[in-house]
Amino acid sequence: MLSDVNFNRWYTNLSKGSLIAADIRLRSLGRFCEMIGKTPKEYAALPQVEMEDIAQDYLDKLESSKNPKTEAPYSPGYLSNCLDAIRSWAEWNRKSFQRTIKISSPNRTPTLEEERAPTSDELRRVLYSDATSLRTRASIALIAFAGMRPEVQGDYRGLEGLRIKDFPELEIKDGKVSFKKIPTMVVIREEISKIRKQYLTFLNEEGCEVIKEYLERRMQDGEKLGPNSAVIAAFKNQKGRQVNFGIEDNSPFLATSKISEAIRESMRKSGLPWRPYVWRVYFDTALLVAEGKGLISHAFQQFVMGHSGDVERTYTLSKHRLPEQVLEDLRRAVKRTSQFLETRRPKDSDTEMLKMLREGLLSLSKRWSPEEIQKLELASMSNEEFFKLLQSRQRLVPLPVPEITGGSQLASPIQPDGGFPIASSDNSIRAAQQGGRRHTAIPISELESFLASGCKYVDKYTTEEGKSMAIVEISF
Fold first, then answer.
1. All residues at 6 or more sequence positions from 85 whose CB lies less than 8 Å from its CB, including other chains
2. pTM more than 0.85
3. Phi, psi for residue 58 in degrees, rounded to 5
4. CA 335, CA 344: separation in Å to the nearest integer?
5. Both 331 and 374 in a single domain?
6. Are residues 319 and 290 in the same domain?
7. Which of 344, 359, 391 is the last residue in one of the domains?
8. Cα separations (Å) of 4 from 8, 36, 92, 282?
């Protein structure tokens, strides 16, 4: 068909808008012409009314039959693509259809009716499965934790995609990868953006760890990474690894279809029947939950999803720059949202205990009102952020030592300095102090972070529920 000069002009013109859309219409029109027994040129030479009759009869026949490959009825989306291709070819030949050809239930998506947003446990099952390669793990992480579309990582033909330089806060030194800030910024350039406009998103801590491991493994295998290197790379013939290029020979990028195929294979091995795109639904759902809790604004949510909106307009008009304050506000909002994305976040009981502990420390300071404390997102703060908050106002006011209540067993109830921690049977934890020293109890899992913040380890104990706790001395 492309040997026809007029037909080739039509296809070339379509591909300037979207190569994917052009190829879909090319295939749809080809199937249509094969079914009616005419070439595109012969069909375009017919009177307009006859062209409309043939198109309507064709679609009516498809609607009442089944796809031989799936044994299921053709979806409304498939029929709409066929109609769009036929209409486009007719319009190109100056015979725009005047008749309104309708399709039953055009908005119905039968293949997606059983699809839902995955849970964090399901994401973890796929992400860290032995059946999931490091590269596929990185692909999934970029979609689930930063909301990127698969085609951002590698386009339709594998000619362009996400590059190292698109992570402006990523550093590579002596074969090691580090990030200046987390969540780290990712630039979605215009040429890899579906909306054909550049925008920003952020990758959370867990996603950064996955990308770090993947890139460092590639360097260990002898690959030299630079600003223009592909983030999700086609395998080179290094150390006996399988050659796996994109559609175009020698491209450093994978084609979108190959990226999706690898993700789909890993999902099937983990028992998940959905499309690879469902991980973007996972990201979007987390943002919506966070928005409902007031942790991220709707404008920010729209921007990191790559949708048009107020922030996108500001970013575009300002020549791809956002005021530093807006940028950091956006980063903090994404960080707060991470609690709904992470697959390794603390259990609810641990989160609640940490929140109660921090509320107690702020209450002891006598510098925070109950109303102020309630407004703080204490559970989602990092330890560093919390200690900065705690030290932002004056020192704790000395209080009398509370009496021990409840039946929790301490490994060493009385501390060397005479102070002692208290844990009641209802899991509430209160700080006790004597002689100017301040002690509190924390989950063992938090000990490393508290020590890094300047606290001193004192002792440990086990609660009635079997939870391991540590006693630390807080220094100001």
1. 24, 25, 26, 28, 29, 32
2. no
3. -65, -45
4. 15
5. no
6. yes
7. 344
8. 6, 19, 14, 45
Query: Tell me, what's the pLDDT at 399?
Result: 35
The percent of residues above 70 in pLDDT, for the chain, comes to: 76
What is d(CA 236, CA 30) in angstroms, rounded to the nearest whole number?
Answer: 36
**Based on the domain organization, do 182 and 238 belong to the same domain?**
yes
- Cβ–Cβ under 8 Å, residues 180 and 169: yes
d(CA 208, CA 216): 12
Task: Indicate the length of the chain as a whole number.
Answer: 476
Q: What is the pLDDT of residues 130-157, one digit of tens each?
A: 999 999 999 999 999 999 999 999 998 8
Among all chains, which residue has been given the structure tokens 């102070």?
419
Indicate whether 314 and 329 sit together in one domain. Answer: yes
pLDDT of residue 243: 40
Of residues 309 and 294, more confidence is placed in 294
- 3-state secondary structure string across 426-448: CCCEECEEECCEEEEEEEHHHHH
In a shared domain, residues 25 and 68: yes
Last residue of a domain, one of 311, 344, 377: 344
Q: pLDDT tens-digit profile of 411-429?
A: 333 333 333 333 333 333 3
> Three-state SS for 127?
helix
